[in-house]
Each structure stands twice: as structure tokens, then as C-alpha cells.
């Protein structure tokens, strides 16, 4: 930073009155950059469970994902006679979004699933994200493939775009983002089945 030093007299002594011109210097820009990187790391850790890496860990496609230990599917499937992988209808899928149900042992919560391009993931292990009060509850119990064209910070479009599974009209760039999210989910959650779409409503390949 440039400084304008003025020599003045006070009580018979000389001193310097330094005035700063208010422009950013190198140190200031370094501080801003560090703050942005730190904030991005915190968001990535909270949302995705791991830190961003220059090696290419990204949910947007084209990158390498860190190896993680995936949780097992919810016990519900075995206890209720499901043979995995299971072929779901859209109506059946809608039953699995963490809703309450009652069995012989009392009140319980159903598994939580979501589908991307016809592949069904069991996300029961992350209720803080996908449970009844989770920020991503909209995506559960359905195939919301068209919303996976958006990035992690594009909340406005993701929450204001109605869910739909047919993405056959997507551009290559949009499909790449959907594939990126699909790859991310395969590293984090078990696959429990696929969706049998109506004949005229097939997911993109």
C-alpha cells in the first residue's frame, strides 16, 4: 500500500502522520483468497462428507472420487422380503422417503431412497440431509434426474424446478453434470434397485 507520511510538530517533537489510500494490497488479496478457500472447504465437508481436493474430487463430473466405506442397505429390505436389487415402480418408490410406519415392534421410519437416471440409492444413512427435516428431502422417494443438472450452490433452480426423470432432451453438458452426481452417489450410498418407468417415459442412457 502507498502511504503519505506527513511530518508534523507536536510539543517540540517531530512525528509522522500516516494516511492510507484505501487500496487493496497483496496481503489483503491473500487474506480474501484464503477466506474463500476455507469457506468452500467447510461447505464441501458439511455437504459431501469430504474435503475438496486438487486431485479432482468433485460431484460435477469428470473427476476422481475418494474411496469411501459405503453403508449397508437399510435392514428394512431384508426384514420385509425384498430381494435386492429390486425393480421399483414410481408409485412404490414414493413410499420410501423416511415416512413413519407401524409393525409388530411399534412405530418406525421407512428407508429413504432417491433415484438418478433410474438407479435407486438407499440414503437412509444420511437422515440429516434426506430425512423429514433434511435440506434435500425433495429428491427422496422419486427420480429427480432433471434437478441433478444443477451444482451444489444452485439451490434456487434446484428447488424451483419440478422433479422429472425424463432427461432425453438434455444437452451433453447437462448430462455430464447428472453423470457427475451419479458417480458421487455410487461412492457414498448402496444401490438397491432400478425403476421400471412407464413405456413412454424412459430415462436417458
UniProtKB/TrEMBL annotation:
Residues 88-196 form the Cytochrome b5 heme-binding domain. Keywords: Receptor. InterPro entries: Cyt_B5-like_heme/steroid-bd, Cyt_B5-like_heme/steroid_sf, MAPR/NEUFC/NENF-like. Belongs to the cytochrome b5 family. MAPR subfamily. The keyword Cell division does not apply. This is Membrane-associated progesterone receptor. It comes from the Eukaryota. Pfam families: Cyt-b5. GO terms for cellular component: endomembrane system; membrane.
Amino acid at each position: 500500500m502507498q502511504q503519505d507520511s506527513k511530518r508534523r510538530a507536536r510539543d517540540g517533537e517531530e512525528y509522522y502522520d500516516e494516511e492510507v489510500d484505501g487500496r487493496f494490497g497483496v496481503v489483503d488479496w491473500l487474506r480474501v483468497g484464503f477466506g474463500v478457500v476455507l469457506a468452500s472447504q467447510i461447505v464441501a465437508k458439511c455437504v459431501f462428507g469430504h474435503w475438496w481436493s486438487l486431485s479432482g474430487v468433485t460431484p460435477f463430473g469428470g473427476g476422481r472420487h475418494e474411496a469411501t466405506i459405503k453403508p449397508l442397505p437399510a435392514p428394512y429390505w431384508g426384514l420385509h422380503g425384498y430381494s435386492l436389487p429390486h425393480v421399483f415402480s414410481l408409485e412404490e418408490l414414493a413410499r420410501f422417503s423416511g415416512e413413519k410406519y407401524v409393525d409388530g415392534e411399534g412405530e418406525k421410519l421407512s428407508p429413504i431412497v432417491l433415484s438418478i437416471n433410474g438407479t435407486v440409492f438407499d440414503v437412509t444413512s444420511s437422515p440429516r440431509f434426506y430425512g423429514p427435516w433434511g435440506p434435500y428431502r425433495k429428491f427422496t422417494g422419486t427420480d429427480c434426474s432433471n434437478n441433478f443438472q444443477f451444482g451444489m450452490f444452485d439451490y434456487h433452480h434446484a428447488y424451483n424446478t419440478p422433479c422429472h426423470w425424463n432427461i432425453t432432451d438434455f444437452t451433453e453438458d447437462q448430462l455430464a453434470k447428472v453423470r457427475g452426481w451419479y458417480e458421487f452417489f455410487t461412492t457414498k450410498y448402496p444401490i438397491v434397485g432400478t425403476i421400471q418407468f412407464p413405456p413412454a417415459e424412459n430415462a436417458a442412457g
